[in-house]
Amino acid sequence: MLNKLNSLHLRINRQILFPASSLIFSNSTVSAAKLDSHEPTVITTSISPIDPNPSDPVRDIVADLKNLGFRRFIGENYVRDFDDLRLNESQVDRIFDCLRTESPVVAVQLFHWLRSEYGFKHSRYSSFVVSHVLASKKRFKELRFVLEQMLQEEGSDSAPSLCELLLNSFRDWGSNSEVCDMLAFVYSRSEMVHDALFVLAKMKDLNLKVSIQTYNSLLYNLRYTDIVWDLYHEIKVNATPQSEYTTSILIDGLCQQSRVQNAVLFLQETAGEEFGPSVVSFNTIMSRCCKLGFAEAAKALVCMMLKYGLHPDAYSYNILIHGLCVAGSMEEALEFTNDMQKHGVKPDTLTYHILAKGFHLLGQMTGAWEIIQKMLVKGLNPDLVTYTALICGHCQIGNIEEGLRLREEMLSQGIPLNAISYSVLLSCLCKRGQVDEALRLFYEMETAGLNADLVTYSILIHGLCKQEKVQKAIQLYDEMCSKKIYPNSFTLSAILLGLCENEMMSEARMYFDTLTMCDLTQDIILYNIMIDGYVKVGNIGEALQLYNQIIEKRITPSIVTFNSLIYGLCKNGMVAEARRWLLENIMLHGLEPSTVTYTILMNAYCEEGNMHCLFKLLEEMRAKAIGPSHITYTVVIKGLCKQWKLQEAIRLLEDMYAEGLTPDQITYNTIIQCFCKAKDIKTAFQLHEEMLLHKLEPTPVTYNILINGLCLYGDLKDADNLLFSLQKSDISLTKVAYTTIIKAHCVKGDVNKAVVYFRHMVEKGFEISIRDYSSVINRLCKRCLISEAKSFFRMMLLDGYRPDQHICEVICNAVYQGGDISSMFELAAGMIKSGLVPDKFMRKKGNSAATKFSMNVFCVLFYSLRRSSTSPLLQLRPLLPRPCCNAAASSSLNIIIVFINFSLLCLVLTLIIGNFKTTLIHHTLMCNSVVLFHLKTRRLVALWQRKTPNSIFRNSCAERW
DNA sequence: ATAGGGTTAG
User: Fold this and answer.
1) How distant is C1' of B6 from CA of A520, in Å?
2) Which Pfam families match (predicted)?
3) What pLDDT does residue A31 have?
């Protein structure tokens, strides 16, 4: 009962009395002094002996600690007493000073206890006292901890004052050398290298021994500088016994600076020493070689290792296998995996991950899958990286659902995702255009306490730019910078790419020019994106200009630069020119054409229908051992389809699987479309089944193709059923699926069904354009379903769409044909109100109803312009045949009338102008003519006739009129 | 203190 009360009291007591550590002491001069002064505080401590006077609290505490021992001292009663005391810093220092000789163990215990229980900040003196105690007992781990805590509080540039204290007050203490050494070590480990070097210099003055651990740590921190070689010299001179790490740290330093050759030479120099060439050192050099792309050199190093009697370990093999995989030499990588096993080194999860990545890089997803499966069969546990690889595999083929399912599985297995695994999912969502989903996942990731890194931000910024959500992208960009994550060429390129993909070329160029001004465009990638952007919008001139800029700036173009230019040339129909570029410029720059280069050219030949050249290039690729990708094969399949070699196309598809290349959705879409065109709907659907079997999620385009196939060559009812079941399964579709089926029903004359689907399309939230209405109206008009067309037109107006030029012309034409003149005028008036002009008909030849009509509309138009505008000619100019314009420009006319049919003209003019004297114009002159009037005098000024030019006006006659 | 996964040009 008493104990319980006491402990309760203690808890309350502590809460009340010791919310902060400084409360223990009445005097906290040290911390105050530190805050006020910029100079490090130098304390010269003189410890006074214990006062025999019984009122000295230190005396009692020390006596109790010694007599009772620490355990009993911290029993509740004493603690209470201790709590109630107010001790100043020098009193505590005295306690430690007294204890260290008589009860050193208790001194250490008290030291820790005060800090852990009260968060007490010890003085430098006490810390050093305890440090010496620990050093003398060889409790180095604790010593390191004490000094670490001390340096955390002292910060950098504290070495001079700490050394002074240490060397003044502790010079003769037995463990000074160890404490000094540990101090230097901890400074170095805390990345306060200057302080560490200061301590080292002092030690040198006093002839104190520096341990190899301290040297090693300093060597590591200074590995990019030449100071390391001074330090290394010092180690040699002092005959400090080295450790196995010393040489490997130096080797690592050289490697980090890409001085691989120096590293090898240095390693050879250390041969014969106790810690000469080691497996770790070799691994370090091999790793660097591979990173620099010299997998061959890494292989040679393995031989060198064996010569030194060293055996490659799992690291060595994994490094080498990784190097080979990145270099694309999968065969050799697999050979070394076997070799590894033969030498008794078991491939581990890392080995499998490396191999999977290798296949992945080559686009051989099947190979990657098989490797991961093999790993799981071998009983190796999937870890975060394995899962990431699996998620990546699913995401690659667009199966985000499976990716998200795996995420759930990971969480249930207690494997939390990191920024990388989230990035894979985010990237997949962005690629599918689900940026909002991606943002949601991103916030979820942040809520889970994961920090987005540069890559994560780059993915999102790219996704947002691509969707024209530039504002949000900029917001994220600012957020990223505020987190001190600075953009690299990836981030810059994400923005640039986003702008280019939106065909916002002028904005992209502005951004690019800004980067150039800041000298940030040394990176060829940024140039490549710009060039590619220009090429895609067909501006090959601007692209070539940028290429010249690259050459002027002496930036080395990459194969991608050429690929884009070749694409541009091909797109402009300059295939032969493109082929020449391939042969001349690429070779000139010492570059090798890539799979992409060949694929672009092959595609161009395919478009031209030049299968001969296409297959010649395929052979050339094979001869050069440039592996075709799944895209290359897709192009070949497209070519075969064009030639109606359907069976060969199917065979090639099978070959792809056999070669480990995974056909993607576009491959299937190509071949399915071909079978649809060949009216073999059955096989088309079989191929669709095959896609599902290979876990390839059909794209909305796949369904567009199938629906279109059924509409054109199959039963429209089947198309209805397919669309219905797709809608029911909530499979994502594009607008095209709807417009296709609407078109089919219009053609068949089933307006009701067309309207129903049109309503579906609107309800699904697709952006409906005026074109969607006009194409339906157009089709209905073509089938002379005038009243249906009119009701559709009304529906459009009700939906809030303003009719455009084209739709007016179509509907006007239709009502005119139906003889509904009043509707026609109604529409014409509506058009003029909307500022529309019947411009296309003016240029149409022939005496079609449309032309007749348009002439009349033109009159109406002209009239309203005359009333509203001071210069009708200026506005009418673009509508008139060229000679008419010239005449109008040269004289100060302010009226033109263009017409063909006299009776209609009279009608219109009478309707509009009322008292217009039609008799001024002779009937016979009016057919197929354009007449120019002067408004005020109402005199005929000029006339153009189509068939037989009137002799009076022959001189003004134009070629076409 | 040496090895693995994600973003970018067709």
Assistant:
1) 25
2) PPR, PPR_2
3) 32
